[in-house]
Amino acid sequence: MGGDTQSERCTWCDVAVDRDDGYRAREDPGTRRAVFCRLEHVVPWATQGARWEACALEAAPTVGAPHDTCAQCHQPLTDVRVNLMRHRREHRIPDTFCSVDHMALWANSGGRYARPA
Known about the structure:
The protein is α+β, with helices and mostly antiparallel strands and 117 residues long. 13% of the residues lie in helices and 27% in strands.
């Protein structure tokens, strides 16, 4: 697909992640982020200490209506949250969490497309 100069590296496995693929996690508010080539990489990253990367201070991208509850526990979110944006071609699919731990639990259970228990 050509040399995309917009690719990033997966925070967990260091593989190249195209700008229109993968997942981007970001603290809001804050200047920390992580990039994942696969949703499954959120789990070991969080388990081993969630090593964030620095990023420029800018508004976190939003798509659609803002989330007001955690995607994992469904409790109201505070001003501090973790945003996870799925990049799939031109689409951006957001989920928001009250903590890194809840983002990892959600990812471990299969994310937004997990089957109910």
